[in-house]
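Figure 6 in text form: structure in, sequence out.
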């Protein structure tokens, strides 16, 4: 069992904890917040033995081996580097950081300290998504020609909410678009030849909605849409030369639909999960137990490339955060 600490007590922690009991390689040891009261309340709620009123205290806990960073992505670089400099392995919530310069600094710190670092793209570890990638790799619908995905919901603009605030690097691309973008790179790789995007901005200048087109050296294309002001079916479709694969609710999938020529279809159903986050935690623990410093399923090179794409899209749209400056 890998002893894990958590920093942050926000909404994502609530979601993660719904199925953490299913993790087989993780032992929850400590949780930290900038508020001792919030840390203590969270520890009692989730049955975690130790509560710390500062991140520094958790970093200095000799029993904690792996730290799950669940703070807003505007804090990820600072929090991750603090932990890694204390010799802790890190599983960092997506988006890995605000921009590629921050991700590069995190990777450099991980390598300097010889610790494990991975972006917590939990969708990639769910059985349905692993099956989808396996089908693609085995050429079940021949060469992929196009991937299309969308992730959007009809939210209400509120500048005080983290997902809209400039100070916390809010906006659709970093909060939702990372799912669609890493869904695409999971099938086509992270080295597109050209990426173009169009953003519709909220009143305070963050991206309320963004549409992106991509083309790869192979000739394969991709497109995705993310937004916080429009309803969408949250579906990803992978089009091949000999059929196409539908992934409904692709960011937490429990079903795949394979379409063959002639109208033939085959459906693959998977056991529904509370959330399904435990798969990525067990994967991180397994990597650590094997002495690995990065994951083969979410490699650091991919996290850096995806952050680079997001950074360029924002800059071209004139969307800058305090951390970018």
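Output sequence:
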């Amino acid at each position: 069992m890998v002893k894990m600490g958590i920093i942050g007590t926000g909404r994502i922690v609530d979601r993660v904890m719904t199925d953490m009991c299913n993790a087989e390689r993780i032992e929850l040891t400590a949780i930290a917040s900038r508020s001792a009261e919030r840390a203590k309340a969270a520890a009692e709620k989730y049955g975690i033995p130790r509560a710390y009123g500062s991140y520094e205290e958790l970093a200095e806990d000799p029993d904690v081996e792996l730290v799950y960073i669940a703070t807003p992505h505007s804090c990820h670089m600072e929090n991750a580097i603090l932990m890694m400099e204390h010799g802790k392995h890190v599983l960092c919530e997506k988006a890995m950081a605000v921009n590629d310069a921050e991700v590069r600094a995190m990777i450099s710190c991980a390598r300097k300290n010889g610790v494990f670092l991975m972006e917590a793209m939990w969708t990639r570890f769910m059985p349905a998504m692993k099956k989808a990638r396996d089908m693609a790799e085995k050429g079940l619908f021949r060469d992929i020609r196009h991937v299309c995905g969308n992730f959007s919901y009809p939210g209400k603009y509120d500048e005080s909410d983290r997902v809209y605030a400039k100070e916390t690097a809010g906006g659709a691309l970093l909060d939702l678009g990372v799912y669609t973008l890493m869904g695409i790179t999971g099938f086509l790789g992270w080295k597109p030849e050209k990426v173009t995007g169009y953003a519709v901005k909220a009143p305070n200048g963050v991206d309320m909605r963004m549409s992106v087109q991509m083309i790869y050296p192979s000739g394969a294309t991709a497109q995705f849409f993310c937004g916080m002001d429009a309803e969408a079916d949250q579906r990803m479709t992978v089009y091949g030369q000999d059929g196409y694969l539908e992934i409904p609710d692709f960011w937490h999938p429990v079903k795949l639909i394979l379409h063959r020529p002639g109208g033939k279809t085959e459906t693959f159903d998977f056991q529904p999960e509370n959330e399904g986050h435990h798969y990525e935690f067990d994967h991180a623990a397994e990597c650590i137990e094997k002495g690995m410093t990065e994951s083969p399923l979410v490699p650091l090179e991919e996290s850096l490339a995806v952050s680079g794409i997001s950074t360029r899209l924002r800059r071209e749209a004139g969307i800058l955060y305090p951390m970018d400056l």
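Caption detail: Residues 19 and 273 are 8 Å apart (CA to CA).
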